[in-house]
């Protein structure tokens, strides 16, 4: 089986990245959206429990076959690599490095994906050095927008290394997810999504049991569930929909596109002209990520 390509998957990737960007901006700009009625592990457990129940129910209704054996273990690994590992790494790094440094390091994910794709995917897109060049241009843009700070302590240096390893792990997970999506029996990746999100929900629920709870605020709970319905769940739907339609290097372009959209929205809201370095960064980021998303020469094959 081969990957679907075309305009709709690319638009889906842009929409996913826009949802990520809106989530970040709403948290920064709106105190009500940034309010946290639960601890971080509990919030994640709620999101992935809801998504796992939803996808499993639809998969059962459609008669989809759930992965077993090695495929089941691979689905579990996808849940860890997509969700548990990045969230844990970000929590570990919090307070030791800035959020902008975290974004800059995780934006190395597409470079790792371009390098790993020929080895972890049995039918990788034939993009070669051009894909790597596009990713490097985008990283240059990220560094213009969010220049990395020199770690001020040993813990900060360790946090940066943990995020670097996380970027590598997420890239590898994307490659494995694309390969698994081609081998999952049935018309969709619903069953794979249910297993992956179910594993993530269990991990976060276990972590929540050992995490101090926060005081509940009813209004904050309402806003939180509104965000889950409008941003988190649609984002997860798009993510697993794209797995069977795009190569890993294209999928990881979301790590470039989300900061790009956030920067463009911030630029539109900011009445003052940004520094030349920031404008150069936006141009480079748009050029590099645009090449990863829309460049030709990705291999095609039969649909799901």
Commentary on this structure:
The chain is an all-alpha fold and about 300 residues long. It has one domain. Helix 4 runs antiparallel to helix 8, helix 5 crosses helix 8 and helix 12 packs across helix 13. It is globular, with a radius of gyration of 19 Å.
List the helices and strands and how they pair.
Blueprint: H1 7-29, H2 31-34, H3 40-62, H4 70-93, H5 99-106, H6 109-120, H7 128-145, H8 154-183, H9 190-209, H10 218-243, H11 248-251, H12 254-269, H13 276-294
Helix pairs in contact: 1-10, 1-12, 3-9, 4-8, 4-9, 5-8, 6-7, 6-8, 7-13, 12-13
Provide key terms for this protein.
304 residues, mainly alpha, disordered C terminus
In short:
The chain has one domain.
Estimate what percentage of residues fall within beta strands. Answer: under 5%
- Number of spatially distinct domains: 1
**Spatial gap, N to C terminus:** 8 Å
H-E string: HHHHHHHHHHHHH
Q: Classify the secondary structure makeup into a structural class.
A: mainly alpha
How many beta-strand runs? 0
Report the biggest beta sheet as strand number plus sense, adding barrel if it closes: none
Mean pLDDT: 84
Helix content: over 70%
Query: Which consecutive residue ranges, at least 5 long each, have pLDDT under 50?
Result: 298-304
Instruction: Count every helix, treating DSSP H or I runs of 4 or more residues as helices.
Output: 13
Shape: globular
Radius of gyration: 19 Å
């Amino acid at each position: 089986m081969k990957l679907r390509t075309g305009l709709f998957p690319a638009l889906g990737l842009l929409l996913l990245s826009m949802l990520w960007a809106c989530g970040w901006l709403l948290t920064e700009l709106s105190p009500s959206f940034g309010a946290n009625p639960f601890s971080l592990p509990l919030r994640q457990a709620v999101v992935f429990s809801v998504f796992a129940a939803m996808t499993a129910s639809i998969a059962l209704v459609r008669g989809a076959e759930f992965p077993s054996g090695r495929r089941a273990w691979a689905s579990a690994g996808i849940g860890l690599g997509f969700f548990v590992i990045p969230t844990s790494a970000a929590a570990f790094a919090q307070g030791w490095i800035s959020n902008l440094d975290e974004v800059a390091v995780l934006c190395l994910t597409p470079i790792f994906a371009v390098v790993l794709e020929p080895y972890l995917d049995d039918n990788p897109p034939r993009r070669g050095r051009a894909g790597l060049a596009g990713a490097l241009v985008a990283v240059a843009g990220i560094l213009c927008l969010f220049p990395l700070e020199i770690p001020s302590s040993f813990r900060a240096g360790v946090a940066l290394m943990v995020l670097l390893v996380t970027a590598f792990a997420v890239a590898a997970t994307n490659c494995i997810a694309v390969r698994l999506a081609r081998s999952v029996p049935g018309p969709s990746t619903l069953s794979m999504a249910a297993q992956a999100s179910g594993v993530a929900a269990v991990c976060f629920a276990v972590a929540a049991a050992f995490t101090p709870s926060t005081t509940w605020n009813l209004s904050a709970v309402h806003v939180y569930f509104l965000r889950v319905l409008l941003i988190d769940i649609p984002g997860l739907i798009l993510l697993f929909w794209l797995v069977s339609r795009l190569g890993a290097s294209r999928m990881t372009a979301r790590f470039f596109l989300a900061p790009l959209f956030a920067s463009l929205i911030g630029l539109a809201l900011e009445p003052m002209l940004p520094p030349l370095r920031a404008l150069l960064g936006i141009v480079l980021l748009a050029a590099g990520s645009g090449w990863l998303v829309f460049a030709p020469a990705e291999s095609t094959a039969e649909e799901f």
